[in-house]
Specification:
By secondary structure, the chain is of the alpha+beta class. It has 3 domains: about 230 residues, DNA Topoisomerase I, domain 2 (Beta Complex); about 140 residues, Topoisomerase I, Chain A, domain 3 (Alpha-Beta Complex); about 120 residues. The chain contains 19 helices and 14 strands. The strands form 5 sheets. The protein has a 4-stranded mixed β-sheet with strand order 9-8-10-11, with no helix packed on it. It has a 3-stranded antiparallel β-sheet with strand order 1-4-5. Strands 12-13-14 form a 3-stranded antiparallel β-sheet, with no helix packed on it. Strand 10 and strand 11 form a beta hairpin. The two termini are about 55 Å apart.
């Protein structure tokens, strides 16, 4: 049920921005379409053909469904603009795109000179700043405040027109998304707010006063027939409170999961009274357990024109294969993303094995006698599943939903790996901590089946990482050269010590000579006495000069000795330190390459942004002396601004050190 809590008293803003209108290219010459030359295209048709020209050379160009849908959109637009005859029976192969492709290539920023790129970037930056100034803020008065606050708006620009790309095997991929105008858009404002004028010069579709909504504007997307929204930014207090609530609820579910599973298990068991209700209850509980075990979406929320996508409640017999110790699933999930993975049944004696066995038996029973295209759980809707989960009522104030399990599972996957499997210690190098965190992120993405199309540049990216790994392997320290450096510094030190010793010996020799002279009897012969006195004075003067010399030079020599000793110690450590750094860099390069290969077609950011409780990364970071904020972009850190002041009630398991394991 939707909340009726008033989120704000006053909400005021300037509406939303619209993409600039398409400007026809004045240099465009007549285009040949099915052996006819078209002098001047209709603006909409030129815009569509230019968009297709940009897809030439990509996999989309040869996708039959993509081509078919675009061509249907093109013909529909031609009919709408009064060009039906010129595009009737025309195929994409009948259109000469060479000139359009040439224009598209010239418009690419990468193909312009550095000076042009700078100019264009400066103009775009100025335009973005102006749009942000006009549309990037809302004035919100919260129910518990007396003064309104300025709050950022998320994506305040409505989607531009273009070719719908879709995901996976979406049946509408290639269809043209028409331009959204002010007449399509409703604004959410307070009752007394000034009505902003649309920037496109039209009139808004209407005004809504949804005090429980966190949205600014909405319009209906013609392709999906669903409403699309512009929201307050994720950094706003309202959005952050909603975000916190999601993670707190998943945390409560983790604390009380056994109570929930006990009631799901009871629901899966067969009873003998009120047979019809029990049968639906048992099917609903079986769906709920399937969602718990797989993090699968509930399933009946797709539109009629969407791909043949299913979920837990709408699985058909052909989507499931029950084997001895596992159950295989193979179907298209949300956004036509393939869900093709096994569920391994628990083989360890205990309550989990009993529940898995009960689930398996129910699934076999509900599939028995059905054709491949028949649903396993007919009449079991998402509303029924969520109502059943709500009735598990594990703790006051927590209404369990099917979606909650995805946050629960993503967070648990990360927590289990970091605290129980990764074996990372505070003394480990930073790169091992970073890749452990990424591996945990990947575990969550796999659990939630956050798939994506492999990026076009994936192979190039992989090769770059292989090259970096090869370079890292080649850069092994030159141990012979390091040994030479040690010998060289030792020689320098020996020379300095010899020099210091020579000065001291020279002084000592003269002092010894003077001492001998002084111990001898002073000659009585006047001539000999003169020689004695002369020698005495000379020795005294020499000793005085030598002392001054030693005093002047000894500190400098001593300082050089100390410096050379320190350098020698560094040189002696260099081979071991060089080897350690070499191994760390080689390991970091290997980890980067292996992670890139493993991530492949998984979208890590989806779970990182929406499903993994960031407090788990924070707590682990404290434990292993790693800054958890390095895992998030600046935008996400703003979204998770509440994390530093929030504790997890579900304390993560104490990490077991290797020493504790051995004991």
């Amino acid at each position: 049920m939707r909340s009726t809590t008033i989120k704000w008293k006053n909400l005021r803003h300037n509406g939303v921005a619209f993409p600039p209108k398409y400007e026809q290219n004045p240099t465009l010459q007549p285009i040949r379409i099915k052996n006819r030359w078209i002098k001047e295209l209709d603006p909409l048709l030129e815009e569509m053909l230019m968009a297709w020209a940009k897809k030439i050379g990509t996999p989309y160009e040869i996708d039959p469904k993509f081509r078919e849908n675009f061509l249907l959109s093109l013909r529909k637009a031609a009919q709408q603009e009064g060009w039906t005859e010129k595009f009737e029976d025309v195929t994409l192969d009948d259109i000469d795109f060479s000139q359009l492709r040439e224009i598209a290539d010239k418009e690419k920023l990468a193909n312009k000179s550095e000076e042009e790129r700078k100019q264009i970037s400066a103009i775009r930056k100025k335009e973005r700043e102006k749009l942000k100034e006009d549309f990037g803020k809302a004035e919100v008065l919260y129910p518990d405040k007396t003064e309104p606050e300025s709050v950022e708006i998320g994506a305040y620009m409505v989607e531009p027109p273009g070719i719908f790309m879709g995901r996976g095997e979406h049946p509408l991929r290639g269809t043209w998304k028409r331009r959204v105008t002010s007449k399509d858009v409703e604004l959410n404002l307070d009752e007394d707010a000034p009505r902003p004028k649309p920037m496109d010069g039209g009139e808004w579709k209407g005004f809504v006063h949804d005090h429980d909504g966190l949205w600014i504007a909405r319009w209906k997307d013609e392709l999906s027939d669903k409403l699309k929204y512009v929201w307050l930014a994720e950094t706003s207090d309202l959005r952050q409170n909603k975000d916190k609530e999601k993670y707190f609820n998943a945390e409560e579910l983790e604390i009380h999961i056994e109570k929930v599973l006990e009631k799901i298990g009871n629901g899966m068991r067969k009873r003998h009274n009120e047979k019809e209700r029990d049968e639906k209850e048992r099917k609903t509980a079986t769906v709920a357990y399937l969602i718990y075990r797989t993090a699968m979406r509930v399933g009946d929320e797709k539109d009629e024109d969407e791909a043949d996508t299913v979920g837990a409640s709408t699985l058909r017999k052909g989507h499931v294969s029950i084997l001895e110790n596992r159950i295989d699933f193979d179907f298209l999930g949300k956004d036509s993303v393939p869900w093709k993975k096994p569920l391994y049944l628990d083989q360890n004696p205990g309550v989990e094995k009993d529940r898995d066995e009960l689930f398996r038996k129910n699934l076999e029973e509900f599939m028995r006698g059905k054709e491949s295209e028949e649903q396993i759980f007919p009449d079991i809707t998402s509303a029924r599943v969520n109502d059943f989960l709500k009735r598990t009522n594990p703790v006051k104030g927590l209404s369990v939903t099917a979606k909650m399990f995805r946050t629960f599972h993503a967070t648990k996957a990360v927590s289990d790996y970091l605290f129980n499997e990764s074996k990372i210690e505070a003394s480990d190098p930073p790169h091992t901590k970073f890749y452990a965190a990424k591996e945990a992120n990947l575990r969550a993405a796999i659990m939630c089946n956050h798939k994506r199309a492999r990026p076009k540049t994936w192979e190039k990216g992989l090769q770059a990482r292989k090259d970096r790994e090869a370079q890292a392997i080649k850069k092994e320290p030159n141990y012979a050269k390091l040994k030479e450096d040690i010998d060289k510094r030792q020689s320098q030190l020996d020379k300095l010590r010899d020099k210091s010793e020579a000065l001291k010996k020279s002084l000592q020799a003269k002092e010894d000579e003077l001492s001998t002279l002084e111990s001898d009897a002073v000659p009585t012969d006047e001539e000999k006495k003169k020689k004695y006195d002369k020698k005495y004075r000379e020795l005294k003067n020499k000793i005085k000069k030598l002392k001054r010399r030693v005093k002047a030079k000894e500190p400098g020599i001593l300082a050089k000795i100390l410096e050379t000793e320190a350098n020698l110690e560094e040189a002696k450590k260099a081979p071991e330190l060089g080897k350690k750094r070499y191994e760390e860099k080689r390991e970091a390069a290997r980890m980067e390459r292996e992670l890139y290969e493993r991530v492949d077609d998984y979208a890590l950011n989806t779970s990182l942004k929406n499903y993994i409780d960031p407090r788990v990364y924070r707590d682990w970071g404290k434990d292993v002396d790693y800054d958890w904020k390095k895992l998030y972009t600046g935008t996400l850190l703003k979204k998770f601004g509440w994390v530093d002041s929030s504790k997890r009630r579900r304390a993560s398991k104490k990490r077991t050190t290797p020493r504790e394991k051995s004991e």
